[in-house]
Amino acid sequence: MPSKPPTTTDTCTTQLQALGAQIRSQRKALRMNATVTAEAAGLSRVTLHRIEKGEPSVTMGAWCSAMAALGMALQARSGTDTAAQATDRTGWIPARVALADYPQLRALAWQVHGTDTLTPMEALDIYERNARHLDLQAMSADEQALLQALRLALSRKPGAEDAV
After folding, report:
1. CA-based, 20 to 30 A from 107: which of 43, 101, 131, 158?
2. How far apart (Å, rounded) are the C-alpha atoms in residues 23 and 46?
3. What is the DSSP letter of 44?
4. InterPro entries, from UniProt (predicted)?
5. What gap in Å lies between CA 93 and CA 96, rounded to an integer?
6. How confident is the model over 70-112, as pLDDT tens digits?
7. Where are the beta strands (DSSP E) in 41-103?
């Protein structure tokens, strides 16, 4: 029996959960605990926790306050803008590099246990230590852009960005 198509509520819930995960990731990247972040945003720690879980019952003002406390901004986009903006990641480095999004990195990081994400510096170290095992032809354009951005921003050796 085919599954039913996603409803608007399902889509909104998924988007709020993704936004909550981004907020939590930013908080972790800034090394701020939940209590300090909640106080900076003028919220209770419980409300911040609900935001990070993506609960739709939290007011929009609370979401905006939490994001502002973390140096983030909320923007509304039309559905057609999303595809165009998602593909242009030139020079973009995420606060945490998700192994699931970068197959070559995931293969190189086989020894990493207990986490699904790496700091940008950890990701660059793994790429550089295992450069001989990289398959550049099989690497997606997004992963190549990430590697180039990491090298340009974080490389410690002069000329290292030209190596691959």
Report:
1. 158
2. 15
3. -
4. Cro/C1-type_HTH (IPR001387), Lambda_DNA-bd_dom_sf (IPR010982)
5. 8
6. 888 887 776 655 554 555 556 678 888 888 888 889 888 888 8
7. 97-98
